[in-house]
Amino acid sequence: MKSHKRKVFILLPVLFAIVAMSVSPAMADSSLSRTDKVKVEVMIHRAVDFLKNKAQGTDGSFSGHVGPGATAVVTLGMLQCGVSPDASPVAESLAYLKSFVQKDGGIYNPEGFLNNYETCLAMQCLVEANEDGKYDDIIAAAAKYVKGEQWGADTNSVPASDDAYGGAGYGKHQRPDMSNTGFFMEALQSAGIGPEDEAMKRALIFVSRCQNLETPHNTTKYASKNPDGGFYYTIAAGGESKSGETADGGLRSYGSMTYVGLKSFIYAGVESDDPRVKGAIDWIGKHYDLKTNPGVGAQGLFYYYQVFAKALNVAGIDSITDADGETHNWRSEMISLLAAAQREDGSWINSGSDRWMEGDPALVSGYVLMALSNCMDKE
């Protein structure tokens, strides 16, 4: 399996020497100003210092009481920001994640119910750390495992007409949703599995059906009720949006799931001139916002930041024109916002809502590192 090249960042002399040896000494090309680059460097070093010295458990975990998922988010963020897989605190967290490798190939807490979510995030960590191919077998087994968890895979026997078809939930036979399906597709993509794979093709069917847009790919009952091009949480099991319903019973689109949808289309090979991609980008322009997760306010704000940055980065979108005609350099704006929000100890928390664990400084700091890596590195 081909190793994944980690993103790397230049070091500030002397500053935060405690982690200096952990980060590779080169800056990715970027159109950002030097001021923005320095802000990112400072944020990364302060965050890694916090995670290493104030947030990591003796077993290598971060917020280990919730299982390996939070540790995988934090580890992935550090790896994507250039921290070496052989350096502390990443080496310890990788060892912790490896302790959850199961005989069936999954990487999860067998006493929990987040099998797909945990495996997909752990897969991405191991891909990022796989410079010498030592994790090839674990990654391949994990990819096989999550494919088997997908609705519509051979083990599920779900017909293509079922709204759940192609989606991924937290675990086998749990209702599929856009968030888990997005992690599923990103994990496969990171492992070198492309649009031609049957699992990706099935996932694209589910993603297309969760968009508020009537197309030949989406003839579900919600498709025409609120055709704004955005996405909601799930079409399965009767449908749900965390943003609620429209007056006529449609499902409201909201920010984080719309960026998941855009990212997923790209991984599935959907072309930029496809109405589905155009619809998502149009919604993003009309609802551009970094102060809230559009449609749900402060809820899931930092999850929103990381998927916002990832989606726009992989889509090759450098600026966004909003509903008022103002053009935004989203990278620079996000960097400034995150720099102002970083706490004295180097961490971040969602001060507006602790829903979805965003009162946890380790998890939220992991999300921020994931976001920053996409601010700095154009793919």
Radius of gyration, taken over Cα atoms and rounded to an integer in Å: 20 Å
Order of adjacent strands in the largest pleated sheet: 1-2
- Class per helix and strand makeup: mainly alpha
Strands, total number: 2
Give the biggest beta sheet. Answer: 2 strands, antiparallel
Q: How large a portion of the residues is in β-strands, by DSSP E? A: under 5%
Poorly predicted tracts of residues: 1-30
Beginning-to-end CA distance, first to last residue: 20 Å
Helical residues, percent: 40-55%
What's the average pLDDT?
92
Dominant shape? globular
SS summary, helix count? 12
* Helix-strand string: HHHHHHHHHHEEHH
Protein model, in words:
The longest helix is centred in the first third of the chain and has 22 residues, at 34-55. This protein is mainly alpha-helical. The two termini are 20 Å apart. Helix content is 44%, strand content 1%. A hairpin with a 5-residue loop joins strand 1 (320-321) and strand 2 (327-328).
What is the structure about, briefly put?
With 379 residues, the chain is an all-alpha fold. The protein has 12 helices and 2 strands, in the order ααααααααααββαα.
Set down the secondary structure blueprint.
Blueprint: H1 34-55, H2 68-80, H3 90-98, H4 115-128, H5 136-149, H6 178-190, H7 198-209, H8 255-267, H9 275-286, H10 301-315, E1 320-321, E2 327-328, H11 330-341, H12 361-376
Antiparallel strand pairs: 1-2
Helix pairs in contact: 1-11, 1-12, 2-3, 2-4, 2-12, 4-5, 4-6, 6-7, 6-8, 7-8, 8-9, 8-10, 10-12, 11-12
Name some characteristics of this structure.
mainly alpha, 12 helices, disordered N terminus
